Amino acid sequence: MFFISPSRGKLSFVEMMDDVITYIKGLPSSSYKIIIGTDSMVKNETCFVTAVVVHRLGKGARYYYRKKIQRKIKSLRQKIFYETALSLELGGKITAYFSESGFAELPVEVHIDVGAQGETRDLIKEVVGMVVGSGFQAKIKPDAYGASSVADRHTK
């Protein structure tokens, strides 16, 4: 599984994480937040895009993404749960890597593509529970830009 960085091209997981740490070390006086979000687009099959955003608070961000193609998923509920599971899986790998690299204190947020307006409102409680129960901060729309903006841009 590889990641794509708009500025650095194709990277392995370890290369991406090394790039993230280099970015953070480049301006250590800043505050950082790591954001993971997944969005999907259904056509003949379902394209899932998981984004990793390194937000240098008040000073921009850098992001990476990976795509995963699955069979067509018609159920909105199933699609949202799978998006959340992909984000959590990657979140677990990232936090483990940070712990081993001395960056365990970095806050990691999972952005979920659900919101109080629209069809996904009935799923909020369950998916937020999944994320919080996994030890991450959860954000939903309109604050879930990791999923609804960054990942969404690459599902098309």
From TrEMBL:
Top-level lineage group = Bacteria
| Pfam families found in the cross-reference section | RNaseH_like (PF04308)
InterPro entries given for it?
A: Phage_KVP40_Orf299
> What PANTHER family does the annotation carry?
DUF458 DOMAIN-CONTAINING PROTEIN, HYPOTHETICAL CYTOSOLIC PROTEIN
The protein, known as: DUF458 domain-containing protein
What is the originating organism of this protein? Answer: Sporotomaculum syntrophicum
